[in-house]
């Protein structure tokens, strides 16, 4: 089934977020996940999430440029 | 809010203009599904990713549209030495499958198939339509994204899979 969603939603029907069978390795990694970041992101629209990613890339690039410049001084 | 860095790039960072790439592809009626890290971000992931991965439909009409709209943006094989006789045309795309490209809009991976997920037609039923940046584009559903990442079985993805599964749990609790 092909579905359409409002811009702020990325799941479309009950059951879409049903649990997957647990993988013991992934369960170990899951303990270290900062869920507060995820909860904040879930408050944003999809567009805001992607804008945030690009903003992060831009800042990281700027930081890298500054580090390179410092090494050349 | 803070964003975690998922993989250290081997070379310098290059920003990918996700907004322009999505507008370009969708605006030119290219049939594609956003997969990979950007799909994770769309679902709420807090991890950084530097490229846009899309599964594209491998029909000759769609590949022609893809080539026509991307060609003005200087697509070239990412990481390849300059000067290779690489020609980005429909024949090249249809002769190959997956292409990791650098364009003047950033890094774009064109995937004819993804491990554990198959091609565009296989993924389509597990995709959702997003209205974003003034265009409509498709994105792989979170559950399917987790399944394909699990199927790939790459240790470097374990942390990402764990985060996506945590997201799924958070959505269940919303």
Radius of gyration of chain A, CA atoms, in whole angstroms: 18 Å
Query: What is the β-strand count of chain A?
Result: 1
- Average pLDDT value of chain A? 83
Percent strand of chain A: under 5%
Q: Helical amount among residues of chain B, as a percent range?
A: 25-40%
3D shape of chain B: globular
Per DSSP, what share of the residues of chain B sits in E-state strands of 2 or more residues? Answer: 15-25%
| Oligomeric state of the chains in view | heterodimer
Coarse structural class of chain A: mainly alpha
Largest interface: A-B, 47 and 53 residues
Distance between the termini of chain B: 20 Å
- Cα(first) to Cα(last) distance of chain A is 58 Å
Question: Which sequence of SSEs, written as H and E, runs from N to C of chain B?
Answer: EHEHEEHEHEEHEEHH
Average the pLDDT over all residues of chain B and give the rounded result.
91
Low-confidence stretches of chain B are 1-11
Number of helical segments with 4 or more residues of chain B? 7
Q: Could you list some keywords that capture this structure?
A:
heterodimer, A: 73 residues, mainly alpha, 3 helices, disordered N terminus, B: 174 residues, alpha/beta, seven-stranded mixed β-sheet, two-stranded parallel ribbon, 7 helices, 9 strands
Write a short abstract of this structure.
The complex is a heterodimer of chains A (73) and B (174). Chain A is mainly α.
Describe this structure in words.
The complex is a heterodimer of chains A (73) and B (174). Helices cover 58% and strands 3% of the residues of chain A. Chain A has 73 residues and is mainly α. The longest helix of chain A is centred in the C-terminal third of the chain and has 27 residues, at 46-72. Chain B is α/β, with parallel strands linked by helices and 174 residues long. Chain B has seven helices and nine strands; from the N terminus they run βαβαββαβαββαββαα. In chain B, strands 5-6-7-4-2-9-8 form a seven-stranded mixed β-sheet. Chain B has a two-stranded parallel sheet with strand order 1-3. In chain B, a hairpin with a 2-residue loop joins β6 (99-103) and β7 (106-111). In chain B, α6 (142-152) runs antiparallel to α7 (158-173). The longest helix of chain B has 16 residues, at 158-173. The radius of gyration of chain B is 16 Å and the shape is globular. Chain B starts with a strand and ends with a helix. The interface between A and B is large, with 47 and 53 residues.
């Amino acid at each position: 089934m092909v579905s359409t969603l409002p811009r702020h939603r990325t799941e479309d029907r009950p059951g879409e977020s049903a649990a997957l069978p647990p993988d013991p390795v992934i369960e170990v990694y899951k303990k270290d996940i900062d869920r507060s970041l995820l909860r904040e992101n879930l408050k944003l629209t999809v567009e805001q999430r992607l804008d945030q990613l690009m903003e992060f890339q831009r800042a990281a690039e700027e930081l890298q440029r500054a580090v390179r410049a410092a090494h050349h001084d | 809010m803070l964003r975690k860095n998922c993989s250290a790039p081997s070379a310098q960072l290059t920003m990918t203009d996700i907004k322009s790439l999505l507008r370009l592809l969708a605006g030119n009626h290219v049939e594609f599904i956003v997969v990979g890290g950007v799909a994770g971000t769309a679902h709420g992931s807090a991890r950084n990713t530097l490229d846009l991965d899309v599964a594209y439909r491998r029909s000759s009409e769609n590949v022609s549209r893809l080539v026509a709209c991307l060609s003005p943006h200087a697509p070239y094989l990412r990481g390849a030495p300059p000067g290779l006789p690489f020609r980005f045309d429909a024949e090249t795309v249809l002769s190959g499958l997956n292409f990791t490209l650098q364009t003047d809009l950033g890094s774009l991976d064109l995937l004819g198939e993804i491990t554990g997920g198959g091609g565009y037609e296989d993924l389509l039923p597990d995709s959702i339509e997003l209205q974003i940046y003034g265009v409509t584009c498709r994105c792989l559903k979170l559950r399917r994204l987790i399944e394909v990442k699990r199927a790939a079985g790459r240790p470097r993805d374990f942390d990402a899979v764990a985060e996506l599964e945590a997201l799924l749990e958070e959505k269940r609790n919303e």
